[in-house]
Amino acid sequence: MKDDKIEIVIDYHFKDQSILKNALTHSSFINDKSKLKNNERLEFLGDAVLELVVSHYLYENCNNRAEGEMTKLRAKIVCTDSLAMAASDFQLGNYIYMGKGEENTGGRTRKSILANTFEAIIGAIFIDGGLEEARKFILCKLKNNIDDSVKGKLVFDYKTKLQEHIQQKADNDIDYVVISEEGPEHDKIFNIQLLLNGKVIGSGAGSSKKEAEQHAAYNGLIFLGEVHEK
Amino acid sequence: MKDDKIEIVIDYHFKDQSILKNALTHSSFINDKSKLKNNERLEFLGDAVLELVVSHYLYENCNNRAEGEMTKLRAKIVCTDSLAMAASDFQLGNYIYMGKGEENTGGRTRKSILANTFEAIIGAIFIDGGLEEARKFILCKLKNNIDDSVKGKLVFDYKTKLQEHIQQKADNDIDYVVISEEGPEHDKIFNIQLLLNGKVIGSGAGSSKKEAEQHAAYNGLIFLGEVHEK
């Protein structure tokens, strides 16, 4: 895992590498001896940058929408599910500095961590390169979600989305199978495989069966080409 | 009432005067025959610009504050009371295009209208002149509120603020007197005078006695030099 690889993925080169490192540092990575800062202040800033860029885009591109409608669209575009979905698309989870405990309990695929780190990176680009660079990054990574949202098609329920896709062909059969349950009762991790006509097309982990199934469905949609993995 | 006068007050000259007119147009001014648009879409955009500018200021100037603290500070700085107070300071109410009905029921001093129009002007400056011009305007008009908030001194309860100020001198006596009640029972407007030792030092109108008293106290604070009227 190297920070310069993520610069290729996000298509932005930081003048100040310490800001990038700050943006990628989850609170679980910090211990008392460490001089590192976690990414929460950058997340605070990035959240506001994101809100402005999306608001401006909607203002410019949805002339016929009233303020109330735009507020609803914006909320959907910047919600945790939307950001986590976009962050998954470029495997942001792989680049986050996090504690072993967090990692072992599925931290790299946890929606809240993905969404918050995505916002921290936005904040970091804003500080390092200004609003225009942040706008480019946001519109590149969230354009599909924005367009889907404007068309009323942004769906975060991957199981439903997969079901709808599968139903287009008759006699398709999907099945979610629990492969393993790890950890103590109060902190279990479920691993689930998704089978389409008996063939594994995705798998997912999560702290509940429901969450693991959603992740498996999401990976299944990537496999089927319905979600684009950039 | 001319739009060019407000340009002096806000210290920004619009390249596109129609955006300024749009920002100053309350929904009550619009009728079916009018081709004008109300300012709600600009308010939507301005709200996001304001949030970013304040977030960035806090990020840069409060190095020792955690994300949760900054979120609370920001919420206080951008709340309706704070924006209405700042908007009152430059008499924004006088420049708003509003319907007669709204005007006759105290619309020009209504906090929600003042705050929303303030945000609409921020949105208009952002569209017309970009983020830097919007930042200049926001920091000029909200700097006192931001600094007071950071110091934990931002107070919107003007009656309490006045009381605290008055108590510094012994044998001061303040009194709120209802001068008139206008309009039907369900839509009354109260006019109240504030007396300090029997002398009128402020007056205020509102849809409740409480609201009218707050406005009177606010004007009393201006009279006493405790709130600055720019």
Automatic annotation (TrEMBL), chains A, B:
Pfam families: dsrm, Ribonucleas_3_3. It is found in: Cytoplasm. Its cofactor is Mg(2+). Gene3D superfamilies: 3.30.160.20, Ribonuclease III domain (1.10.1520.10). GO terms for molecular function: double-stranded RNA binding; identical protein binding; metal ion binding; ribonuclease III activity; rRNA binding. One of its GO terms (cellular component) is cytoplasm. One of its GO terms (biological process) is mRNA processing. The active site is at residues 47, 119. It is an enzyme of class 3 (hydrolase). Keywords: Cytoplasm, Endonuclease, Hydrolase, Magnesium, Metal-binding, mRNA processing, Nuclease, RNA-binding, rRNA processing, rRNA-binding, tRNA processing. Residues 3-130 form the RNase III domain. It catalyses: Endonucleolytic cleavage to 5'-phosphomonoester. Residues 157-226 form the DRBM domain. It comes from the Bacteria. Mg(2+) binds at residues 43, 116, 119. Its EC number is 3.1.26.3. Its main location: cytoplasm. Digests double-stranded RNA. Involved in the processing of primary rRNA transcript to yield the immediate precursors to the large and small rRNAs (23S and 16S). Processes some mRNAs, and tRNAs when they are encoded in the rRNA operon. Processes pre-crRNA and tracrRNA of type II CRISPR loci if present in the organism. Belongs to the ribonuclease III family. Homodimer. NCBIfam families: RNaseIII (TIGR02191). This is Ribonuclease 3. It comes from Alkalibaculum bacchi.
